[in-house]
Design brief:
Largest sheet: none
Strand content: under 5%
Radius of gyration: 23 Å
Order of helices and strands: HHHHHHH
Keywords: Membrane, Transmembrane, Transmembrane helix
């Protein structure tokens, strides 16, 4: 009976929760760039960690599969295209997982508007990449520090992105983090809706 009351009707706990959340969101909703910044820090840190882990696994697999230096060179030349595709897939997975976690952190911290928080996490990454790219163009490439972090999205200032592989890599670095951050932001926000529902159920005497 309680389950049915919780899903329909104007005065059910679920509808009251929606009313409470709507009122809270009106006052405290919107993009929270502070929360999004911490989400971006989570994303960039996890990107570096996962990239280093993937590189270590790749080196280990390569060492295990090659008997001599000549064999390794020959095999690498023959499988260059396959390795490039695999590397792109691994990078996409790393960026998705990292920015999903970053969006989740921002969504949990901000409590409302999970999609907007995820978008803000992604915007932090774009803004910082642009600022560092401009600084690198003015003061020297050594200031484009994101280019030194394996897997971290960055904007090259030497024209290296104006190739097919460069454009594909840039698209991966832009679109995958956006999708991951938005989905993570929505997931982080859902936790608070569960908490809100428990509070309403308690007031209604259902728990």
């Amino acid at each position: 009976m309680a389950s049915a009351d919780n899903t329909s009707g104007a005065s059910t706990p679920k509808s009251r929760r929606n009313d409470v959340v709507a009122a809270e969101k009106e006052q405290f909703g919107g993009i929270k760039f502070g929360s999004a910044f911490f989400g971006w820090l989570t994303a960039i840190g996890l990107t570096v960690i996962l990239s280093a882990l993937a590189a270590a696994i790749g080196v280990g697999v390569g060492a295990a599969n090659s008997s001599t230096a000549n064999d390794a060179a020959s095999q690498a030349q023959e499988n260059a295209q396959t390795i490039g595709i695999i590397s792109g897939i691994v990078l996409a997975i790393i960026l998705f997982v990292a920015y999903y976690c970053g969006g989740y952190v921002a969504g949990r911290m901000a409590r409302f508007d999970g999609v907007k928080q995820g978008l803000a996490v992604w915007l932090w990454g774009i803004i910082i990449a642009i600022v560092l790219a401009i600084l690198a163009a003015v003061a020297g490439d050594q200031f484009n520090v994101l280019s030194n972090l394996n897997g971290a999205p960055s904007i090259p200032v030497d024209g290296s992105a104006l190739t097919t592989s460069g454009l594909i890599g840039l698209a991966i670095a832009i679109l995958i983090p956006l999708i991951g951050a938005i989905l993570g932001g929505k997931a982080g926000m859902r936790f608070h809706r569960k908490v809100d529902q428990v509070g309403i159920d308690h007031q209604a005497g259902l728990v």
